[in-house]
Every structure is written in C-alpha cells, then in structure tokens.
UniProtKB/TrEMBL annotation:
The chain crosses the membrane at residues 12-33, 45-64, 129-150, 162-181. This is DedA family protein. GO terms for cellular component: plasma membrane. It holds the Pfam family VTT_dom. Keywords: Membrane, Transmembrane, Transmembrane helix.
C-alpha cells in the first residue's frame, strides 16, 4: 500500500508547510521528523528551524493575547490543569523572564502557559522578545535532535530511504508513549491532580 508513495516528493513539496502547521499546534514530533529529513537532504536544517521558530512564536503570541483579554474567563475552565497553572502563575510572579522562556518546555503547559502569562499582565514587548528567544532555542534543540537521530540511524541501518515510513511511525509512537508516561506520572504524583 505504502510502497508507491514518494516520501521525497511529499517532504520536499509539503515539508516546510507541515512543519509550520505542526509547530503551531504541538511541534516536537514534526520537528524531530523535520530534522531527520534535513539530515537526508530532503529539507534544509536552517529553514526547518526558521519555520518552526516562527510558528512556535506565533502560536504562543496568539495564546498570550487570548490570556491577556479573555484569561479571567477561560483559564478557570482548565481546572484539571490547576496545579500546573498555579505553578506557572507563581513562576511568572517570581521570575517572569524565566517563565516566558521556559513555558514551552513544561509538559502540559504548552497551550495554557502563555495564556496564564498573558493573564498576569506581563509586558507584551517583554513577552514577544523572550518568546522569540525561547522559540528559536526550542526549535534548534528538537530539529538538531532529529538531525542527529538521522545520523545515528544511518550509521546503524545504512541508507535510510527504504526505512522512512517505519522511522516516521516509530517516532510518532515514541512521542505518544512518552506523552502517556508523563501524563500518568504527573497524575499519580502526590498533590497533583492532572497535568
């Protein structure tokens, strides 16, 4: 069924668009795959990082402004993430710069975190500058991880072209498994309901 799909063509044609859209929504999985595609010379690493950084920043900017204007009504609806919201709020109050930079790395806070920061009335200019730095760091780390994963797999398997579909599926399964493990660990941690 999949042997007739030309993954090179699909990646070269839609790869950057997929990275941009994927990083607006979630990002890590598509970014790792983008890094692997860059290692295979189907995409280029710097544009992968650039598109991912732009999408990650724009997504967080939108969430920030949503939190700034509608946070008082929206944030209470995320009651299952209350422990994480309280943690981010405390971090914003004590260390606003650190909270803006690191919120995209906090599990379970990727969507709610920027809204909480916006609701805390952090300066929009400060948020934009630090958010950009955080997005570039995040995109560089995950795209580079994908690039070096491609290097490692090529050393083990040789030419990766015949293995592209299984590699994509394995990366997706691995990321889902990690998310499930993190969710259950956070859920079972004393004093934390659900993150």
């Amino acid at each position: 069924m999949f042997e007739h799909i030309d993954f090179n063509y699909l990646l070269a044609t839609y790869g950057y668009l997929a990275i941009f859209i994927g990083c607006l929504l979630e990002g890590e999985t598509i970014l790792i795959l983008g890094g692997m595609a860059a290692h295979q010379h189907v995409l280029k690493l710097l544009p992968v990082i650039g598109y991912a950084s732009l999408a990650g920043m724009l997504g967080d900017q939108l969430l920030f402004w949503t939190g700034r204007y509608f946070g008082a009504r929206l944030i209470p609806r995320f009651h299952k993430q209350q422990a994480g919201i309280d943690r981010v709020t405390q971090l914003v109050n004590q260390h606003p710069t650190v909270s803006i930079f690191s919120v995209r790395f906090l599990y379970g806070m990727r969507l709610v975190g920027p809204m909480v920061i916006g609701a805390c009335k952090v300066s929009p200019l400060k948020f934009t500058v630090i958010n950009l730095l955080g997005a570039v760091t995040w995109a560089t780390l995950f795209a580079s991880a994908g690039y070096w994963a491609g290097e490692f797999l090529e050393g083990v398997l040789g030419d990766l072209k015949p293995y592209r579909l299984p590699i994509v599926l394995c990366v997706i399964v691995l990321m889902v498994a990690l998310a499930v493990v993190r969710h259950y660990r956070a859920k079972n941690r004393p004093g934390v309901k659900s993150l």
